[in-house]
């Protein structure tokens, strides 16, 4: 076996054969390389022994001149980071990787795989409703048909929604910023374009609302927090741009729970329009509440782990949580680069498909995005699909789909991987909000390297979490769980190697789910059973109402739970929702299945009585 000196001798011989610049000043490259090897060997094998080797003493005696000539430049100060700058590491939900996905798509579809499909809007037939409320509760695709047929104008439906937002918001608390002036101007512009023969597509003139996490140029974007209620960006988020280019009219910034958690924001709790005595759930609380209340034609929500699914179920509406990477997050508040998703929250599955057809596709400003085919099929044959059914799936939904032709396949428990520990989500939280934590630490006089032990949900700082309107001083603060100190500080102490190990286990989970889903187009299980694992794997799901009944939401009190002094509230009947989970990139299939159910039922068309 070669000794360390043999290795160095071989290295010197190889370096001697290297050419170098004879005219260069200072130490030549060959000499520098050899001395660097010797210095490294000295640290590895022991300097005294190496220095005693014949022929090596001179180079090792005095290296100061070498290093003084070759000192690296002074270390630059760290570039400051805000909330949005993405890391170099990128999550990819397809088990074999992006390259394999692209090859598969090209082999199956050719260049058409990357071409956005057209979305035809079926023509309006019959009389136009004269009641403003009836118009307000029409599905977005029916409003689109009326505008295209010149049976109503964008300005008319925009004014109806603006009036409802102003009138109902005191009870719903779903509006953060009403964009009344700009909405009317956009609606008038869309009407003028249509009159001149310019049609931007199915969203032309259709009014919507957006979760207050997205940048809208010149308009506050609060993230649900009093610390950011005056934050204004000088650009639009990518989805705002796409929707505007598609002709949609932005009515309002709708509430998000504080930093995208629950239904409490600095203005108080956003409420469920069917049952005002409970919150709208979150964190896409405003989009869920406003859509269910007929205050917008559709809305845009976000999800990291349940924030589209949960408020859609709570408010009895239809929604799509897309496959990870199909919609740009650019310009949106970041919680997790590897889990955040953007999706439509609507009255019907067809509405979701119409909106998603505009939103999806590659955005160079969001490196997670891919373009894959999306082809909504209004007449899909359920018998041709491989739909799994779990024993806990809602019977009413399964029975109706079977009557429509579905041949269900029994499925077993979904795969799990031990030791995931949330997949490192807290670390991403901590990184995304480091800028804010540093700021708050200075305000509170905290040394982030010497954080005290925290009991329960108690704050690290000397100031309690911001208390929203309507909560007594001696009551539990429902915003505490989402405040900066417990949510964004915990991940700061996770070792780097542990985060990497979590990500390695996450890939094992992605691969296990890939194997589980390989013979399925989608499956139906208990409504929220797979939200957490699919937050890790990136699978899509569609939410849809499947019956009308009294809900079994938990509890009362500020946080929604019953206690000794606040009994559980009673609720009125409302739409009850189910979830259809799809294989990766099967967003079109699961929406098409949901559409078949909605063609045969009317649960999605029920209206709440507010007031």
Automatic annotation (TrEMBL):
Listed Gene3D superfamilies: Amidase signature (AS) domain
Molecular-function annotations in GO: glutaminyl-tRNA synthase (glutamine-hydrolyzing) activity
Record SUPFAM superfamilies: Amidase signature (AS) enzymes
Membrane spanning residue stretches: none
Annotated Amidase domain residues: 157-397
Protein name in the entry: Amidase
Organism from which the protein derives: Gemmatimonas aurantiaca
